[in-house]
């Protein structure tokens, strides 16, 4: 009698657990609530959330998720990021934690383009699609798509602008060494200058890791070492604003070019700090990434690579960039 009662209770418990949780059997593999509405959970892993550029990604991704939510699906964005852009190991730990929790898709801006490959492979094994935003992962992982700036072309645009608007010594400050997007922005810039006989490159390319204070310190040293310096190119707006602060402190006429097209960068241009910046569209990247994952997971529509637009922002058009695009 006791054995029969024990078996009956076990069966009831199993049926109860099946009703209360677990993945839906729908093709999308999403969670289903008690009303039958499915929740599609997308993890967003930017390089950091201490940079407003990536905060904009988060805001636009959540707005896109809200717009896509309907009577059948609730689209949810969960976001985590390291405290700084060089937090490679922290980001990978967050990525793997999301995979363990059972997210339906991942949008990531890799801190380490090589280091993230193995974790993307783990996502592939779990059939969790991954789209890279802004910065692509290295070869070896199956990424559903890359959506972002062609950083080389953006850097080249800045180099060509420099060649047309500067005469004399130019120095370069990059972001994080080994990070492909900053490498591409640097190489593109140098190639944009290579045929310019009016430009002299000085100093080593030094990393500021996207930190404003570090960039300011590097710029101070450059201004001391090169009294005839005419321009500083930095591969991020926070770094460029730090360099502009150093220039203003010594009251020198040195142009400062950034890369991001941030509202703060545009305001700095209008205020006479930075001179120019290469504008990206992080909001468009995030929106398109959320839409692509939704279409892939729900409708089986393959995601496609997409290069988002790049524009040179100067005093003439800075007012148009006081909000993220």
Q: Which helices and strands appear, and what pairs or packs with what?
A:
Blueprint: H1 2-20, E1 31-32, E2 38-45, H2 52-68, E3 73-79, H3 88-101, E4 105-108, H4 117-125, E5 130-133, E6 145-149, H5 151-165, E7 168-174, H6 180-193, E8 199-201, E9 206-207, H7 212-225, E10 229-234, H8 237-250, E11 255-260, H9 263-270, E12 276-279, H10 282-299, E13 306-308, E14 311-313
Parallel strand pairs: 2-3, 2-4, 4-5, 5-6, 6-13, 7-8, 7-9, 7-10, 10-11, 11-12
Antiparallel strand pairs: 1-2, 12-14
Helix pairs in contact: 2-10, 5-6, 7-8
Q: What would you say this structure looks like, in words?
A:
This protein is of the alpha/beta class. It has 10 helices and 14 strands. Strands 1, 2, 3, 4, 5, 6 and 13 form a 7-stranded mixed sheet that branches. Strands 7, 8, 9, 10, 11, 12 and 14 form a 7-stranded mixed sheet that branches. Helix 2 (52-68) runs parallel beside helix 10 (282-299), helix 5 (151-165) runs parallel beside helix 6 and helix 7 (212-225) crosses helix 8 (237-250).
In a few lines, what is going on in this structure?
This protein is α/β, with parallel strands linked by helices.
